[in-house]
Design goal:
With 356 residues, this protein is of the alpha+beta class. Strands 1, 4, 5, 6, 7, 8 and 13 form a seven-stranded mixed sheet that branches. A four-stranded antiparallel sheet has the order 10-11-9-12. A two-stranded antiparallel sheet has the order 2-3. The chain starts with 15 loop residues before the first strand and ends with a strand. The structure holds (3R)-3-hydroxy-3-methyl-5-(phosphonooxy)pentanoic acid. The site of (3R)-3-hydroxy-3-methyl-5-(phosphonooxy)pentanoic acid (PMV) has 15 residues, from α2.
Length: 356
């Protein structure tokens, strides 16, 4: 696909202020491995969440000669640790919006979830920032449809953090070219025109905080591990096939297959990290204790509770809304003892970003 249509090279003027909220997402088929400029080596699909969100306000003002490109407040405080990521984002989007260089961006962000909870917040953060930038650009495109707007937002968000491409709409987003989804591509994520089974509309995600610490393996290092990985080719083939099968489970509401594929993906992601060079074990004893208890609980009760994992020790528990009461009972009695300070976050599938 040519990315020419994403370039907006027209001088712009004036002040602009906007504010967007973008959600986090949890991948079912995992994106692990990238090439070029944040292009995925395999397609992925995720649930968009509704409670874990970033709200970002940006004030665009013409930039004075010596002025910095941006200033940034997180929860009303200066946070220089985020500067390199924002700087990199602005550098990467420059070729697609050169006029932005003439602007100073005053950025102010807030997360609905604890910033140091071990939950990846970059997807929501980069999506919210990208949405603000695209909203600024939109004034100069009176012809843009909602779809054009969302595509450009996903395209720019991807340049900030790959998985951020999927934090734009919902309830499910696909990123990366896949035979199973005709309009899918590597440059931006799409919300496929598929009628998902209603059980997934408000599917629950209870995030168990096993480790609140910073990520042990940075995203860039992690994705890099797939270059030359001994199982890379098989893994990428498997992701394509899992995505196709998951599409069918998500449309028919076949929870048995949904669970089988979701857990296989989570463990494959970790298996890739355990077998790369260098290798990493990101699960902790408490992660494993939770996984075992979840599998036992499912076989004893027949309730459709399953797990998925990010590149870390925390566990996302996925289950239908209708089973919430007994499953929450089980989580409270059996699983919270494995969480750091008994912490967890209750979330559910949502429909995406909004202007606030
Ligand atoms: O967006 P990144 O570069 O932080 O990568 C995210 C990778 C996983 O969370 C492990 C999987 C995914 O698809 O979200």
């Amino acid at each position: 696909m040519s990315t020419k249509s994403f370039v907006f090279d027209v001088p712009v003027e004036g002040h602009y202020q906007t504010q967007w909220q973008a959600p986090s997402n949890i991948a079912l088929v995992k994106y692990w491995g990238k090439h070029g400029q944040q292009l995925p080596l395999n397609p992925s699909i995720s649930f968009t969440l509704s409670q874990c969100v970033t709200q970002t306000a940006v004030n665009f003002s013409p930039r004075g000669g010596e002025e910095e490109a941006f200033d940034f407040l997180f929860d009303q405080k200066k946070q220089v640790e985020f500067h390199p990521k924002i700087q990199q984002f602005l550098e990467r989007i420059k070729p697609f919006f050169p006029a932005l260089e003439g602007y100073h961006l005053s950025i102010s962000s807030h997360n609905s979830f604890p910033h140091s909870s071990g939950i990846a917040s970059s997807a929501a953060a980069m999506a919210a920032l990208a949405l603000c930038v695209v909203d600024f650009e939109k004034q100069f495109h009176p012809d843009w449809s909602r779809e054009d707007f969302l595509q450009k937002a996903s395209f720019l968000a991807r340049l900030g953090s790959g998985s951020a491409a999927r934090s734009i709409t919902g309830p499910l987003m696909v990123w990366g070219q896949s035979e199973a989804f005709p309009k899918s591509n590597d440059h931006f994520a799409i919300a496929p025109d598929v009628e998902w089974h209603p059980i997934f509309q408000d599917y629950q995600d209870t995030v168990l905080i096993v480790d609140k610490g910073k990520k042990k393996v940075s995203s860039t290092l992690g994705h890099g591990l797939m270059q030359g990985h001994p199982f890379a080719a098989q893994r990428f083939e498997q992701a394509h096939s899992h995505l196709e099968k998951l599409k069918s489970a998500l449309t028919t509401g076949d929870l048995e297959h949904f669970i089988d594929l979701t857990e296989a993906e989570a463990l494959t992601l970790h298996a890739m990290m355990m077998t790369s060079n260098p290798r990493f074990v990101l699960m902790q004893p408490n992660t494993l204790a939770i996984l075992h208890k979840v599998v036992d609980y499912r076989s004893q009760t027949n309730r459709p509770l399953c797990f998925t994992l990010d590149a870390g020790a925390n566990v996302h528990l996925l289950y239908p809304r209708q089973d919430r009461s007994p499953i929450m009972d089980f989580i409270q009695k059996e699983l919270l003892i494995h969480c750091q300070q008994g912490q967890y976050i209750q979330d559910q599938v949502g429909n995406g970003s909004k202007k606030i």
